[in-house]
Design goal:
46% strand, mainly beta, globular
């Protein structure tokens, strides 16, 4: 299981992603603003308008970029991930639900459909839509600093663990 803490939701500092078993750094995550104006708007809005994120490997290689397409459309993101072979994966995540009892969205990667689902106060899961297999899970605490936990459940997808971590953080972190 991986863990990382966010001390300030407006900060653009790198946060270490730590393997909880070995205490080794596996990567870094940080909030990103496209310009000073978006950062000022987010400052006024207490960090709730923009949730663009960058994820880096332990060697500081940028592998994940999410950009919020419109601050007024809740959870509408474009995502780019670069795998270890320098091949890019691009996807979009759009929340089309108006009534929120749970968090739920679908997306596609490499011709496979996935579902991200989270009930309030529970672990969030990404599952394969066709098979129903749970691939990864993520949870964050409500206390400050916010502790976030991530675990790959399907070891065959370990090459994409920072992609799944980034998707969870982009979509669910507030």
């Amino acid at each position: 299981m991986y863990k990382y803490k966010i001390y300030n939701k407006l900060s653009t500092s790198l946060s270490k992603i730590i393997n909880d078993d070995t205490e080794h750094i596996v990567g870094y995550i940080k909030k990103d603003y496209s310009n000073i104006f978006t950062r000022l708007i987010d400052l006024i809005g207490d960090g709730k308008f923009f949730n663009s994120v960058k994820v880096y490997t332990k060697n500081n290689d940028l592998v994940f970029i999410s950009k919020q397409r419109n601050p007024f459309k809740y959870r509408n993101f474009t995502i780019k991930f670069t795998d270890k072979n320098n091949e890019s994966i691009n996807l979009q995540i759009n929340d089309k639900h108006w009534f929120k009892i749970s968090e739920y969205t679908t997306f596609a990667i490499l011709n496979t459909e996935y579902v991200l689902h989270k009930n309030i106060g529970d672990w969030a899961y990404i599952t394969n839509k066709e098979t129903g297999n749970k691939l990864a899970r993520w949870k964050n605490s409500l206390t400050s600093p916010t502790s976030n936990y991530f675990e790959m459940l399907d070891q065959s997808l370990n090459d994409y663990e920072l992609l799944f971590l980034g998707i969870f953080h982009t979509y669910l972190y507030e």
